Structures are given as C-alpha cells and as structure tokens.
Amino acid sequence: MNKLALKPLKIGNFEVGPNRPPFIIAEIGINHNGDMELAKKMILSAKKAGASAVKFQSWKTNKLTAKKSVKAEHHLKDLGCDGEIYDLLKRVEFKKEHHFEINDFCKQNDIIFMSSVFDEEGLELLEDIGVVAHKLASMDLNYIDLVKKVARTQKPLIISTGMGTLGEIEKVKDACLAEGNEKLIFLHCVSNYPPKVEDCNLLAMETIRDTFNVLVGYSDHTIGVDVPLAAISLGACLIEKHFTLDKTMPGPDQPVSADPDDLSQISERSKTIVTALGSPVKKPVPAELAMIDSFRRSAITNQAVKKGEIFTREMIDLKRPGNGFSPEELKMILGRKSTTDIDDDTLILPEHLGELG
Hints:
Layout: E1 9-11, E2 14-16, E3 23-27, H1 36-49, E4 53-58, H2 61-64, H3 73-77, H4 85-92, H5 96-108, E5 112-117, H6 120-129, E6 134-136, H7 144-151, E7 157-160, H8 166-178, E8 184-189, H9 203-212, E9 215-220, H10 226-233, E10 238-242, H11 260-277, H12 286-289, H13 292-295, E11 298-301, E12 316-319, E13 336-338, E14 353-356
C-alpha cells in the first residue's frame, strides 16, 4: 500500500503521520531514579534537543511484578538495589503526586507529558491529568482486557510490539476497533537492551503497516542514532527512545538511552530525511528540467555534410547538448537529404532536414 495514503493522527498540536517530521518521544521512564529535580532537568534537556514529548511509566510495583521475579539481563548488570527487580521498581516508582507535578512542569515548558499505562488505576490517574495520548508497553501486547480499557478513552493509542507476532497485533487492533478506537500507532520494537543491529529487522515495520493499514513507528533500544534514523527513512512516523542526561548514571536503562546530543541528532537529521523522502511519483522535478539541455544527448554531425547528401548513421554522434534530436528521435533524421552544407560537430536541427533520399 501507499504509506502516504494513511491519515495522520493529532497528538496535542502535532500531526503524526506520513510526510511529516516524526513525533519524537524521549522516554525518561525510570532514568530519573526517583529524583523529581533530575526529572525536570531531563524534561528541559529533551525539549531543547527537539523531543515532541517526554514519557514516564505509571505503575504500582506490587501490581506489576512479584517480589521474586525473573531478572532481565540488563537488570542483572545494574540493578542499583539489593538484587531484586521489585526493589528497583519500588525505589523509582512514579508516584501519584509526581504525575501532577511533572505534568504541570511540562505544560509550563510547552512539551507533551505522557506515561505508559500498566493497570486500570494508572489509566484513571492519567485520564484525570488529561493526557493527550496513551502508551501501552510491549509486555502488555497480549493483555487484551487492558487494551480495551485504554481504547475506550478514544484517545490516540501508541502500542509497542516487542516480543510480538502479527497474530497478536491483529488481536490488539481488532480489540481497539471493537471499542470504536481507530487512532492507532503500532511501534515495531525489539525487547532487548541493547538489541543486536541484525536483530532490529526494521522491514517488519513495513509489514505491520501494510498488513493492518495502520501508522507505524519504532521504539528503539539500540545504542546510537543510526537505527532510529533508518527507521524514519522507512516511514516511521514516531520514534520512541530512552533518554538520559548521562549514560553513566545508575540504572539499567541508562546505557541504551539517548543523551542530549543523540536526541538532537535524531531530531535534526529526521527533518532532512523526511524532506528527502518527498513524493513517490517518479518524474523530473522543476530543477531537473533546466538540466536536460545540458546533460542529455542529441544528434550531432561527426563530419562535414554537403547540401543534398543523405544522412546515415555513420555521420552522426550522440552527445551533449540535449536540445536537439534525442537518441530515440534518430529515425527522424536517417535517410533525409541535408538542405544545406553543415560543418563537422554541429547540432542537427529540423531546418537541416529535407525530403527522403
């Protein structure tokens, strides 16, 4: 399908969709380490770097994970706590009062506040705050009851698809449509921290778009900026990237996060990419039309031609400039008599052509 035919979605004051600069979410997530002053510094830095929105995570730790839980590899490297994921999450839990404080700070600094939904209580809190869109994490791609509850808000719904299959994505889309919500953006994602480049499979983003006729984006956990920029070149209308002020700060997500320089590069270079993608129509742009006379080939004599002499292929070279008979028009010359003497290396013009010999 033609990705340009997809209708854009409105998120705050942003139109998100084809032929527009990508909506960039700086995911602060848990990188604030429970420090709201640090969170505010990160918000200001993300805004300066070109982010469209900042995103946090709304959970109650005791509803998200058991006290003894299977550890992810990137958690094992840097838990920053006594050794259990539960302890880490409890320490950095984004509390109710934090939501209102940070939302007000975002409003004051003209950047969209978002937070991932993990349960009904978090959804109600975010609805009370008045968020403009909701985000569901990859872990909940198969949690259809939660999907339905979020879809009922009728707000744009951004859904990560890490660890997921096309069948699971189809169930999520069907559940949202059943609730009357068509405002969907599915994010291709590889739930590894960081994933190998060869595991990123960015072309899967096109598969999701073409299979389900939905807007697509990319939730990135790679190190650096190359992969998200490549995703934009393939049509990602939204990029989500973990964000930090310093990749060496404590916390499991810091090393795979974008720092302010990374985020600035993604923001600025994405504008160039989208502009360069342009139109799918293949035709000369206006600036090229002026180059045709200089760069294309025309029929030019390679010897002196006498008046009345019959033009043969051996008399003619095809070379610049391009303002005469083109190679495909050569048949209009051959076999005709010259109406005048013509010098060597001369552009053959219509007035040089007489009757057939």
